[in-house]
Specification:
This protein has 656 residues and is mostly beta strands. It contains 7 helices and 33 strands. It has helices at 132-135, 200-203, 249-262, 283-287, 364-369, 390-393, 401-405; strands spanning 10-12, 19-27, 37-40, 46-48, 54-59, 64-68, 75-78, 84-89, 99-101, 106-108, 116-120, 143-146, 156-159, 171-174, 177-179, 191-197, 214-219, 225-241, 291-303, 307-319, 326-341, 344-358, 407-426, 429-448, 462-485, 489-514, 525-551, 555-566, 575-586, 603-613, 625-630, 636-642, 651-655. It has a 15-stranded antiparallel sheet with strand order 1-18-19-20-21-22-23-24-25-26-27-28-29-30-33. It has a 5-stranded mixed sheet with strand order 11-16-17-14-15. A 4-stranded antiparallel sheet has the order 4-3-6-7, with no helix packed on it.
Length: 656
């Protein structure tokens, strides 16, 4: 029996010498700041402050702490060997006039009545990570980011906990196009800002898809002036930390002998002198390696009074800390806009990425359980494994062999684009029409050769392939009105419609038994093990409206309503209405409010909204399904797998 301490495996940059730095983060009034991000500059090493504003972090004694929190200026503190620090954050007054994306429009941050948090490129550009989701981890209050751990995999995002009993992932909107494109497909350098809509009054504008929050991503655009060439390069190393300390071969044999004797069974006679076995094999050390990540981006941007452009290309190559895991990604971004007439403006965004994920076949659990008494390979070059009495030699297969023999690869290609026409009737009335296109292709290929593994052999060579493609179309049309009456009453209106539809189909097959393992094309397989495929569609038609009212920037009101019709529900429940209303009072704008440097903006707000969730509902869940299958000897059969649900309705949530 193997005794080990099971710890976490987290990729992290290595440091030659570290100290433990403790401290407290406060604001200018002396109040502690809860949930502030505390990061060691230039690394992924970081933490967040606790309920008392305290933190503790192991870091380099000569490093620099980067402390940030939404609404405050980011502060850098040089440690210089200090083990106790107190950090005071000052409010960022410029953020009050910052323009945030709220869905079908923008708004000054000072005019917001709902819960919206924002993060800019300056906050993520220096993060030595490959995924945009990893870069925002711990930097936005109320947003939980869980890293998948494997290069190329998407992070899990949860906004203010779990918003549904099923799928709790937020809606992602990239340059105005709702999409299920993973954040791992984006180049962080191309992202200008990220806005998170958190409460129901802010997300109700997205109706049946807003229950779990909305993540709004805006990519960079060119600015007026001469062309600017920018080059970004990042090269980093990653290692596993907190790797469990395992018994070596001699220690295990000694422990096994004691266990067998104490339980009244015979110990292994070959282990009469355990010290002769030596150190044996450290399977975790054999499985893991130092990962290397390199990330390069080249961009060019510029423009004049009437047009702007931004073009970039990126390359990312990351080898995982597990020997069989690799990830490679190419990205291309092109954004432009042109004022072709005084009343007509065109703009477009193009995002393309191609990636390759290689994962092989590995099990950290098997590496922890495999006995250290075996070598990785036998003297004849074959892979070792347990044979004989399992009480002595165990029953865990060699954990290294499959990582080298078995092959697994996924190739993905993503294309996201939109074209917008903006008609200006007056300075205060505009009409926007946006067409969006989201195409995804991904191809999976897994190959497992036959091999006489001990104690359980793989008796047949098999190959599995899956081809998938998905096409999503979007057409938005809406009017925008923004005008100030009598220099006191500012009114903003938005009204329009949105149509989005998708087609997805896949085809997969598996064949077994190949005459030669080095020639394993599907045509050469002798046995058809499985084949399947399907095509599905969904559509969403929506009507939405919003009104914003501000009186002297003191009293604020926002009301929205959205009417969604989804093909995923039965005819009796296909349509749903999602209203919201929120109000705010900026007490700091009152004449009696004292002017000081400690509190420069004080706002009291309240809101109510109704949102929905259809993410976990299948495309045809409201219909009865009938499964057909073919058995050997040509006998066909069918069985009903689901009943008609005439009451299937949207998952609705009302929040105050």
């Amino acid at each position: 029996m193997m005794v080990c301490l099971i710890g976490m495996l987290l990729p992290m940059c290595m440091f030659a010498q570290q100290i433990t730095v403790q401290g407290v983060v406060k604001d200018q009034t002396g109040e502690t700041v809860i949930g502030a991000s505390v990061m060691e500059k230039g690394t992924t090493n970081g933490t967040i402050t606790g309920i008392d504003g305290d933190f503790s972090l192991n870091m380099s004694p000569n490093g620099t702490l980067v402390v940030s929190f939404v609404g405050y200026k980011t502060q850098e503190v040089q440690v210089k060997g200090q083990k106790q620090l107190q950090v005071v954050l000052s409010e960022d007054a410029e953020m009050l006039d910052e323009v945030v994306v709220i869905g079908y429009g923008t708004m000054k941050k000072s005019d917001l009545t709902g819960a919206v948090s924002s993060i800019g490129n300056k906050d993520i550009k220096d993060s030595p990570v490959s995924n945009l989701g990893q870069a925002i981890q711990g930097k936005i209050s109320g947003v939980q980011i869980v890293d998948a751990g494997k290069p190329g995999d998407n992070v899990s995002i949860k906004i203010r906990g779990l918003g549904s009993i099923n799928n709790c992932d937020p809606l992602v909107v990239i340059d105005g196009v709702p999409t299920d494109l993973g954040l791992s497909s984006l180049n962080m350098t191309d992202v200008e800002r990220l806005d998170v809509l958190k409460d129901a009054s802010a997300t109700a504008i997205y109706g049946s898809r807003g229950a779990n929050g909305v993540v709004m991503i805006t990519t960079k655009r060119g600015t007026e002036g001469k062309g600017k060439l920018a080059v970004s390069a990042n090269y980093s190393f990653q290692n596993a930390t907190n790797v469990p300390s395992l018994l070596n071969a001699a220690q295990y044999a000694e422990l096994s002998n004691d266990m067998m004797v104490n339980s009244g069974r015979n110990p292994n006679p070959e282990w009469a002198n355990p010290s002769e076995l030596g150190a044996g094999t450290d399977w975790m050390d054999e499985l893991l390696r130092t990962g290397v990540m390199q990330n390069y981006t080249v961009s060019y941007s510029g423009g004049n009074e009437k047009s702007h452009y931004y073009v970039s290309g990126g390359f990312l190559d990351q080898s995982g800390i597990v020997k069989s895991v690799n990830y490679r990604r190419f990205t291309f971004q092109s954004n432009s806009d042109a004022q072709v007439l005084k009343w007509l403006k065109f703009s477009n965004n193009i995002t393309f990425s191609a990636d390759t994920k290689k994962s092989g076949s590995y099990s950290i659990g098997d590496a922890l359980k495999a006995l250290p008494i075996y070598p990785v390979k036998n003297e004849d070059g074959s892979w070792s494994g347990p044979e004989g009495n399992s009480e002595w030699y165990g029953s865990t297969r060699n954990p290294i062999g499959p990582t080298e023999l078995n092959q697994g690869q996924t190739n993905g290609y993503n294309f996201l684009a939109n074209l917008t026409a903006e008609l200006a009737f007056t300075k205060w009335l505009k009409f926007k029409s946006t067409f969006g296109y989201d195409a995804k292709f991904w191809f999976m290929d897994n190959f497992t050769p036959k091999y006489d593994w001990k104690p359980t052999p793989t008796e047949e060579t098999s190959r599995y392939k899956s081809d998938n493609k998905s096409f999503t179309y979007l057409w938005d049309n809406y009017f925008l009105f923004d005008h100030t009456f009598a220099e006191k009453h500012r009114v903003g209106l938005m009204a329009g419609m949105s149509a989005q539809w998708n087609t997805h189909d896949y085809l997969n097959a598996q064949k077994n038994v190949f005459m030669f393992d080095n020639v394993h094309e599907m045509d050469n397989g002798e046995e058809m093990y499985a084949i399947g495929g399907n095509e599905t569609e969904w559509a969403l038609l929506s009507y939405m409206a919003r009104v914003n009212y501000s009186y002297e920037d003191r009293y604020l009101l926002t009301a929205t309503i959205r009417r969604d019709g989804s093909s995923r529900f039965g005819k009796k429940h296909r349509w749903g209405t999602f209203p919201s209303v929120s109000v705010a009072w900026r007490a700091s704008q009152e004449k009696w409010f004292p002017k000081n440097d400690y509190v420069n903006d004080l706002k009291v707000r309240a809101g109510y909204g109704v949102t929905g969730s259809q993410a976990s509902v299948g495309n045809y869940s409201y219909l009865a399904s009938y499964n057909t299958s073919v058995y050997p000897f040509g006998i066909s059969n069918g069985n009903q797998t689901a009943l008609v649900s005439s009451t299937l309705a949207k998952d609705r949530k009302s929040v105050v």
